[in-house]
Each structure stands twice: as C-alpha cells, then as structure tokens.
Amino acid sequence: MTQTGAHPDGLAQAALLDLLTEAMSGAVLIYDRNDTIVFASTQLRAFLPALPLMPSPGTRLKDFLSLVYDHGGYFPDVTGRLRHPPMGREEWITTEIASLWRERSETVERQALDRWMSLSKRRMPSGYGLCLFRDVSEHKKREDQWRSDLERVQITEDILDNLPFPILVMDRNFTYVAVNKATCSFYNLAADEILGRKNDDIHPPELAARIDRASRQVLETGIPFSISEQVIRPDGSRTAVLTRKLRAGKPGRYFVVTAMEDISEVLSTGEQPEWVFNGLEGVDFVHSDMRLKRSEQPAAVPAERTGRRRVLLVTDDGKVEADGVSLLLRAGFDATAARDLRELRGILDIARERQVDIDLVVVDSAMDIECLEEAEASGIDVLVLEAFQVERELLVAVQRRLARPRPAPAARKAAEDDWQISSVAAIDVLVAEDNEVNQIVFSQILEGFGYRYAIACDGEEAVRLWRDLKPRIVLMDITLPMLNGFEAASRIRELESGGERTPIIGVLTPAVEGDRDACWAAGMDDVVLKPLSPDALDEKFRRFMGAGDRETRRRGEGR
C-alpha cells in the first residue's frame, strides 16, 4: 500500500526491488538493525497466502512473525483448519528472529504436501538484513528422487552381494563396474582386481573375445543371451554354469549384466537341466577354460614380471595409505607412502642419493598443491587420483599408467607447454576451475575420453574462452576468482542473447546449501558434485553432446 506523501525516490526504489524479485521468481523482505521492516515485495503474498494483509514499512518483525504463526506458520493446513508450528508461539518467534540475526542462514520450509520454499537470510555489516523467499519445489522433488535412487542402489547392492551365484556388470565400454562377493570367490580375485578391468585382463584371449561378442550383441540389440558352459575355473577346478546376459539401464546409460548359475549339482543327479533352468532347451555345452597361460598373465600382478617397479603413494589418509600400500605390495610392486610434503621430499632425496629409480608417484588430489608440484619437479611420472579412485581403482590405474610408454623428455616438455589450449579454434569442453589439482584431474579424465578441451582459471577468462573457442559444453566451478561461477554463467547467457545455447554444468561441493538453486538461477543446465567421477562426467557429456559422439570422433582420429 502506498503511503501518502511518500518520497518519489523511495517509490522508485521499491518498484525497482519489486521488479528484481519478480525476475528472480522470489520475494524479498528487508529489515533494519532495530528489527523493523523496511521493504516487503508484493510477491511475498504468493509465499504466505494465508496472511490477511502484507507487512508495510515500519512493521516490527515480531509483529509480522506473530501474524505468520497465528495463521499457520509456513505450512498452513489446506483444509482450512488452523495448524501451528510444532513449538510454542513465543519460542517459534524468538527462534525465527535469532535466525534473521545470523550473518548467513539457509532453511527450507514445507508449505504444502508437494510445495517447498527456501529462506535465504543475510545480515549485512551495516545492520540491515535481507530474507529471500524462493520456490524450490522442483529442486526438492529432484533431491528426494536422488535420495530414493541412492537407497534403491544400496538395497540392490546388498541383495546382489548376498546372491549365491556370480553377478558381473559391465558398462558400455565393456569395463567391469560392479561385481558381487560370489564373483570374487568364483574367480579367486579381490573386487579391486576385477573392477576397472576388461575381459582381456582376466580371461584368455579366445574366451575374452567370445564374451565381448556376446556382450556387444546384448548391448546393441537389448535381446537377452544365454549359454551353458563347462568351465575350468582360474584355480583349475571344474564346474558347469548357465550364463545369462541382459541389458539394463536407460538409453545412453546401458549396462550389460551377467549372471552365472551353477548347474553342476543338477547334472550330477542325471536330470535334464532344461527341466530346471529356462534357456537350456536344445543348447549344447561349450568349453570355457578361464586359466591364463603364463604369457597371458597381467604384466603387473606377479612380482617377477613387475621388475619390482617402485610406486610412491602420497596421501594423509591413514586408511587409504594402509590399504593402498598393502594392495600394491601384494601385486608385486615395491611401494611406500608419504604423508606430507616433508616426508615426500625426504623420500625423493634419499632415492636420488642412492640412485634408486621411482617409477610412479600417485598423489591423492586432497593433498596440498605443494606435494603435487614437488612430485612433478622430480621428473618422475605423476598420477593424480581422487580419494574414491585411490580406494577402488588404485591397482588398475597404476598398472595401466606403467604399461604405457613415456614420451622422451623433449616431447614431454612440448606437451606440457601445449597441454591446455589446442590450436584448433573450436573445442569440445571448456573447464572453468582455479584449483590446480582439480585442473589436473579434469585433464586426465578429458584426455581419457578423447575430448579437446581448454581450462580457464577465473570467471573472466571463462567468458573470454567461451566466446573465442566456442565449446560444446562448459564445466563451471562456482568458486572462481574475478567472476564467480554464477556470474560467469549469467554473463555467457547474456552474450548468447537468443542465439545457440551452450550447456553449462555447475561443479559443486555437496555440503553447501543453496548452490543448486543458484546454479539454476544463473542459467546453468545441470550440476555435478565433487569429488569428480569420470562416470558422472561421461553421463553429462552423453546427455548434452550425444551418446555416440566420442566413439565416432575417436574412430575418425584413429585413436
């Protein structure tokens, strides 16, 4: 309501604030150090529809909150019955005012069975405070769905782990991404020795080729596949299994699931197996010898074939250190660990003095950047892994890194000088990230995928490289210098001005509330959470750049 005699400048400012909050699809409440309301946007009525009237400038916060409580709080009953918040009137009002005095506060309140709103509260150094109301119903639904999916995944994993027969899951690159306990027992291998590997890593070539052909057929057609096998297991024991393969997942996110049911007991009774197991009618048994010949054994597993290659693990996580070093020692490597920069320097100095060659330094990405710089300055090959990769993929990552030939020093120097920006005008991925360790993690993932990419170290550079290099997708860390990720994304959207829209993916830390909503408000298309996962990034790339794009480009480039 306009007050008689109000100053024109004040009216203009109020109208401007109303316009801004409408553009943000929210409502704003501004109050001073005396807990008196200075401004309440007209959109507030959409968030508090039960109130008989909206607060006017000069209203005390206590009176406003009393009115909110008396009309059902933030979640009035839609049936018309009066519903109060669970605590008493004075306690609720005191709690709300206390939250308004915090420097920064984020809460989410339920307004109806399927409607939620967020309250972002800020107290400025001047004493003025601001409370921003926003509808986060869609975000809350997505979050609830995500939690539900995680629970289903956990339940599924528990069920699979307790099945008495082997279950193996391969991704679209025919790499094993999940196995149950029965699989580990069947192959006499730890899960770490299967996960991240392909069939030719754990099977003889002929058998690996046959399994890959069947898996490819299932992946491409979606038609289930069954085969009965007389199997010689890796330990030499014999059994008979019915192997079934089926495709699971969604388009662009398919997996091949393999189940191996033991039918040796049925055969020993003399009964016809097709009476017990569907899929065996008219099918002859094939011979599958899973034993690897000595020449086919993975090069990094037996100690004599590793040549006792030396690996230095840099991590300050005690469990990761103990498990990682133990795993590498069992695989035949000469392994040790450094817990900080001082220990790393000491080990490298001793190795130089005694002329002992260290083949690889594995750095936990959570370590200080000085550790990475020290390792790189030593001239030793360096592999940076996220903590979850160290726990799950360490052995496979080390074996593959050591199996590839290292470039000559001159070539390596040239590559380092040119690692960031390709001479090609257009790129596939623009990464906006100021943390040097995360830059290396992004680089390793993108190089593994075969994408052309560039890295921007601040928000202004991100906008400039987006304009100059025309990336097909942008990975935007939100905590950038110069312009933060939200500001850089908004600037890009302004510059597009109705033209072709570049997908922007926000890179977030899970613990910070409100960042997801800020990403949507800044015009981002999706988010991905740290620690970074190749699988999570691949899902975003396939969604926004097409499922077959990477495979097509690799064939074209002869990769």
UniProtKB/TrEMBL annotation:
<dbReference type="InterPro" id="IPR001789">
    <property type="entry name" value="Sig_transdc_resp-reg_receiver"/>
</dbReference>
<feature type="domain" description="PAS">
    <location>
        <begin position="152"/>
        <end position="222"/>
    </location>
</feature>
<protein>
    <submittedName>
        <fullName>Response regulator</fullName>
    </submittedName>
</protein>
<dbReference type="InterPro" id="IPR011006">
    <property type="entry name" value="CheY-like_superfamily"/>
</dbReference>
<dbReference type="GO" id="GO:0000160">
    <property type="term" value="P:phosphorelay signal transduction system"/>
</dbReference>
<dbReference type="Pfam" id="PF08448">
    <property type="entry name" value="PAS_4"/>
</dbReference>
<dbReference type="InterPro" id="IPR000014">
    <property type="entry name" value="PAS"/>
</dbReference>
<feature type="modified residue" description="4-aspartylphosphate">
    <location>
        <position position="477"/>
    </location>
</feature>
<keyword id="KW-0902">Two-component regulatory system</keyword>
<dbReference type="InterPro" id="IPR013656">
    <property type="entry name" value="PAS_4"/>
</dbReference>
<feature type="domain" description="Response regulatory">
    <location>
        <begin position="428"/>
        <end position="545"/>
    </location>
</feature>
<keyword id="KW-0597">Phosphoprotein</keyword>
<dbReference type="InterPro" id="IPR035965">
    <property type="entry name" value="PAS-like_dom_sf"/>
</dbReference>
<dbReference type="Pfam" id="PF00072">
    <property type="entry name" value="Response_reg"/>
</dbReference>
